[in-house]
Amino acid sequence: METLNSHFHNWFGVLFFIVLYSVVLLFMPFYRKMDKKPHGTYLAFVIAFAIEMHGIPFSMWIISWIIGRNLPEGILWGHTLISYFGHFGMYISTALSIIALSMILNGWYNIYKKYWSKESGSGSLVTSGIYRYIRHPQYAGLLLLSLSMILNWATLSLLILYPVIIYMYVRLGKKEEQDMIKEFSNEYFRYMKSTKMFIPFIY
């Protein structure tokens, strides 16, 4: 139990993980004022993750109070998958995080190099790199990164916020696509038919 308790009241760890997972917002496209709510919700998700993992286990306290006993590690507190897969469970979360960051950075590189560098005064439709497979790689990457956090250390707050984050970024993606249709018309329609929104070959 001493090893588990060493996770908590580590406020440097809380700050470190908040900064670490918040940095990805610098690589997100800023879409007018509509970006503020999804990004703010993601930031709340990150803060909840960091506090419950390294600060104070609120979820465990609440559940223990309600049911009158402590839940075993891995059920809404502690490393989510470690009880089932050992340390391989942590490797799953780490692998998803690496994939997510690769998606975000690849999307950022292609957008800022090929769409936002408007030497001619107008943007061009980006269909290269990861955009060959999905239309919103940065948002998809952020959702995958959030999922990796849940698989690492699931809590009540994360499970409540995750569906909200999904809804907000799907809504934001659809709003962006309406503007892309106005800007590129039939070219963007053809692109939409050949690629999925968030998950290659599926959705």
Write up this protein.
There is one protein chain. With 203 residues, the protein is an all-alpha fold. The protein has one domain: Four Helix Bundle (Hemerythrin (Met), subunit A) (Up-down Bundle), CATH 1.20.120. It contains nine helices and no strands. Helix 3 packs antiparallel against helix 8. The longest helix is centred in the C-terminal third of the chain and has 29 residues. The model has no long low-confidence stretch (mean pLDDT 87).
Mean pLDDT across the residues is 87
Q: Which band does the percent of strand residues land in?
A: under 5%
From the spread of the alpha carbons, the general shape counts as elongated
Instruction: Look at the helices and sheets and give the structural class.
Output: mainly alpha
How many beta-strand segments? Answer: 0
Secondary structure elements and their pairing?
Layout: H1 2-5, H2 11-22, H3 36-55, H4 58-67, H5 82-85, H6 88-115, H7 137-153, H8 156-184, H9 186-194
Helix pairs in contact: 2-3, 3-7, 3-8, 6-7, 7-8, 8-9
